[in-house]
From TrEMBL:
PANTHER family: HTH-TYPE TRANSCRIPTIONAL REGULATOR, METHYLPHOSPHONATE SYNTHASE. Residues 15-25 have a biased composition (Basic and acidic residues). Residues 1-12 have a biased composition (Polar residues). One of its GO terms (molecular function) is DNA-binding transcription factor activity. Residues 47-101 form the HTH cro/C1-type domain. This is Helix-turn-helix transcriptional regulator. It comes from the Bacteria. The keyword DNA-binding applies. GO terms for cellular component: cytosol. Residues 1-28, 220-251 are annotated as: Disordered. Keywords: DNA-binding.
Length: 251
């Protein structure tokens, strides 16, 4: 076969390969576009579920993130396309990784990189990152913290394990002092509060689930008003594990 014949044959082969590759590339691109559309479509319901799970109002979230209430509402309903400029402040407000917020596939790395933060004078160190299910925290109470805290109630059960120092647990009419190595599990519908009666910081692990993430309700209403589940009254108070002012509570 002469050179021109070879070139013709090779050209035909290359053209055939290109024709075969084009549909595959288009199919891959279409699949990627479909996956992206699915991820973006899922962001709105995910944001709404997360906000409701943590009993956060749109107004409170707007104040925390600087994003208008109307934009937040449109994001949750899917009428506004999520962008990094919007998702970054939301991830910070909810204290979750951005990939968790959008439901990105796991990278296979099980390690967690805690980002400690302080609320109401106590330090919280997240030990879990998944939005649903159980949440674990290491909490640090400064000396004398929360000994006069007002008890709170909420649905569910909670578990704590003291790592160091002393933790005072007010549970109904009982006052228990837990030392390092001691644990407690209790029905959170019983009024309860945590404090540190010692002269050294107290560290303990706290474990709670979806019910425990909801905002605490005061066991005794303040004078001049009452508080309902998820109301503004339940968003503050010493001695309670409340990671954010309008967020979920775990103590």
């Amino acid at each position: 076969m002469n050179d021109s014949a070879n070139d013709s044959a090779n050209g035909g082969t290359n053209e055939g390969e290109r024709r075969t590759a084009e549909p595959a590339e288009k199919a891959a691109a279409a699949a990627a576009a479909t996956d992206l559309a699915r991820v973006l479509n899922d962001v709105g319901p995910r944001l709404r579920a997360l906000r409701r799970e943590r009993d956060v109002t749109l107004a409170a979230l707007s104040e925390e993130t600087g994003i208008s209430v109307s934009t937040l509402s449109r994001l949750e309903s899917g009428r506004r396309k999520p962008t990094l400029e919007l998702l970054f402040p939301l991830a910070r407000a909810y204290r979750v990784q951005l990939d968790e917020l959008v439901g990105a596939p796991t990278t296979g790395d099980p390690r967690i990189h805690p980002r400690p933060f302080v609320r109401y004078g106590q330090t919280f160190i997240p030990l879990t990152r998944y939005l649903g299910g159980l949440h674990a925290y290491k909490q640090i109470l400064p000396p004398g913290y929360g000994c006069d805290a007002e008890p709170r109630v909420h649905e569910g059960f909670e578990w704590c394990y003291v790592l160091s120092g002393q933790v005072r647990l007010r549970l109904g009419d009982r006052v228990l002092t837990l030392s390092a190595g001691e644990a407690a599990e209790f029905d959170t519908r019983v009024p309860h509060a945590f404090g540190n009666p010692g002269e050294q910081p107290a560290e303990y692990l706290s474990l709670f689930g979806a019910q425990g993430e909801r905002m605490h309700v005061r066991a005794r209403p303040r004078a001049g008003g009452t508080s309902g589940a998820g109301g503004e009254e339940g968003a503050s108070g010493a001695g309670e594990a409340v990671p954010d002012e309008e967020g979920w509570a775990g103590a």
